[in-house]
Design a protein that fits this description.
Layout (H helix, E strand, L loop, with lengths): L9 H19 L5 H10 L7 H16 L25 H13 L1 H4 L10 E7 L5 H8 L5 E4 L6 H16 L3 E7 L10
Parallel strand pairs: 1-2, 1-3
C-alpha cells in the first residue's frame, strides 16, 4: 500500500461500495473512470479527498483487478489510446457484398440528426474527464456533444471547439454551452 494510506476499510466498506457503484454504472451502459469512482467515494463520505488517498485507491483497485476481485476492465481509461490499424483480411467478394448489403439496407441506417434545422445548438462542456461517462449516459439519445476539458484546456482544444461552434453559428444556430465544473477557468484563474 502506498505511503500515506488512510485507515480506510479497504476490503470491507470501500470494496463493497465500489462493487455496488460498478453495478450501477454497468446498468447505465458505461464504465466509470478511476477518478470518477474516487469522487463518488469522497461524495459518499467513504474516503477523504486527498491525492495520497487517490493513489491508494489506484493501488488497491489495481491489486483487486490483478487478483480477479474486480473485473480487469471495470474502469475506463480515456487518457490512453492505441492508434489502430485495419489489419483484418477480407476477400474482394466479401468487401463488395458488404457494400451491397449496406446499400440495400440504407433506409435502415439513414438518420436525420436530431438538431438538423433547429435554431439552437447545445453542447455540454465538463471540467473533469471523470464526469464524461455520467453526462454521456444522460445525453446519449439527445445527440448532444460532450467536450471534456480535463482540468486545464490547451489552446488547440479551445481552437478546435471554437471552429466547430463557428460552423454551427454560420448555419444560423444560436449556441448554448452548458458547463459543469469550476467557473474560475472561465475567468482565467484556473
Amino acid at each position: 500500500m502506498p505511503k500515506g494510506t488512510p485507515n480506510a476499510d479497504w476490503k470491507g466498506q470501500v470494496l463493497s461500495e465500489i462493487i455496488r457503484q460498478l453495478e450501477d454504472f454497468r446498468k447505465q451502459g458505461f464504465p466509470p473512470t478511476l477518478r470518477g469512482m474516487f469522487y463518488t467515494l469522497v461524495d459518499l463520505g467513504i474516503l477523504p479527498k486527498t491525492e495520497s488517498v487517490y493513489h491508494s485507491l489506484s493501488y488497491q483497485t489495481s491489486r483487486w483487478r490483478e487478483n480477479d476481485i474486480l473485473p480487469i476492465d471495470c474502469f475506463a481509461d480515456n487518457t490512453r489510446g492505441v492508434i489502430d490499424i485495419d489489419d483484418m483480411y477480407e476477400t474482394i467478394e466479401d468487401y463488395l457484398q458488404r457494400g451491397i448489403s449496406y446499400l440495400e439496407n440504407a433506409y435502415d441506417y439513414y438518420n436525420i440528426p436530431r438538431w438538423y434545422e433547429q435554431p439552437k445548438y447545445v453542447e455540454v462542456w465538463l471540467e473533469k474527464d471523470a464526469a464524461v461517462g455520467t453526462f454521456a449516459s444522460i445525453v446519449k439519445d439527445k445527440h448532444v456533444r460532450v467536450a471534456p476539458n480535463r482540468g486545464h484546456s490547451s489552446v488547440s482544444f479551445f481552437a478546435k471547439n471554437v471552429e466547430r461552434l463557428k460552423q454551427k453559428q454560420a448555419e444560423g444556430k444560436s449556441i448554448h454551452i452548458r458547463y459543469f465544473g469550476d467557473p474560475s477557468i472561465w475567468r482565467g484563474n484556473g
